[in-house]
Amino acid sequence: MIERTRMPDVREEARHSPGHSRNLLAGAPISQVAVWAAIIAVAGTIPWIFPMQGGGGAFPMSIPVAPLAGIVLGPVAGFAACLVGGAIDLIIAPYTAGIGLLSPFSIAFAALGAGSLVQRPRRNLWLPGILAPIFLLWLWADFAFLVQDFPMPQILLVGGLDILPSWIVGLAGARWAAKQIERNETQAAWRLFLALWILCYYGVAAMQHGFEWAVWQMMFRFPAEPSIATSLAFTWWERIFIYAGIGALIGTPVILGLKRMGLRRPAHGRW
Fold it and tell me: Which option is the CATH number for 10-261: 1.10.1760, 3.30.420, 1.10.3210, 2.70.98?
C-alpha cells in the first residue's frame, strides 16, 4: 500500500495564487501540456503497418498514447496537447497523416473522449455519450451518399463491430475505471491496467477511429465490400488487443509513477 500525503491540485493552488492561474490551460500547467505534446509528437514518428486495414498505411504510436494525455491532463488540456503534438507530426512524420491536415484532430478526440469519461460529476458523460454515435452515423452516411451499390444491412457491420461496442464499454465502465485510477494500491495494478484499457478502448475505437474513418471515407470513397471484410477480419480486434492494450500497458507504469512522484495533479486530471 502506498502511503502518501495528498498533494493539492493546481486548481487549489491557483485559487490562492492569481498569477499561477495564468500558467494554466484548462486547469493543467502549461509545462505539463508541453511535455505531453512532445510525447505525442515523438510517438507519432513511430509507425506500424497493417497493410490489410482499410486501404493500408502507417498508423503511429501516438494513437494508443493519446487517451493517456486526456486522463492525466484532463479532456481539454489533453485535446490541446494532442493537437499540438499531432501538428508537429504533420511536419516531421507526414507519412502517418492518414487524413492530411485533419489528422491531429483524430488523436485529439481520443484524448478528449478518454478524459471526459473520468470527469466528475457524472453528468459530464454527455460529451463522450453523443460524439461516438455522431461519428458512426457520419460514417454510415458516407457510404449511403458517396458509395454506389452499398449492401444493407451488411454495411452496418462497418463501425458496428468496433465503434459501437467501445462506446458501450466506455460508458458502462467509466465510473469503475475512474475509481480504480485514483486508488493508491500497487498490489491492484491489474485493476489499473483494466481501467486504462476501458478508457483507451473507448478513446481509440469510438473517438479516434470513428472520426478518422468517417473523414477518410468521405475523402477516398472506399468501396463497401472491402470495408465490410476489413471490419470483420481486422478492425475490431486491432482496437481491443493492440491499440487499447498498448495504451494500458504504457499507461499503468505512468500512472503509478505519477502517484509516487507527488506532483500536483491538473484540476481535471485523474490519477
Answer: 1.10.1760
